[in-house]
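Notebook entry, structure prediction.
Reason for the run: the old model in the group folder had no record of what sequence produced it. Starting over properly, with the input documented here first.
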Amino acid sequence: MYIQTWLVNKHGATLFAVAIAWWMASLPSADGQAAGTGGLILWPLFGAINQLLGGLAFLVIIFWMYRQKMSVWFILLPALFMLILPAWAMGYQIFGQAIGASQSWIDQERWLLVGIGSAALILEAWMILEAVVGWRKRAR
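New structure, fully documented this time:
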């Protein structure tokens, strides 16, 4: 059986996600603490990714309200705030040295944080681009 067939199945994909989380949590943290503290490796990403998900939820709400012919003017400013500020903060953490911060994740060689944070920023940009394209198609 191919791994792809497991990952397209909702039960297989859930099992895979739980297994990865269990494996990561059972690792020792980066600073040499005991096994079982591996979740601390990704802890610096939690706040920014949580806020980015909030911003993306705002996009979904805006589109739903727009399709229901409801007014969306009052939700645009919070949505922009929730999309821009966490993205800027994560970019600052990843590439901080380039914009004047003392230590970035790149400088600290925390490549897992750099990879996952960069992937989150790329996915956010993709979602925003899809939203803009969808809004333009809907406006015609």
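Summary: The mean pLDDT is 83.
The old model has been moved to the deprecated folder.
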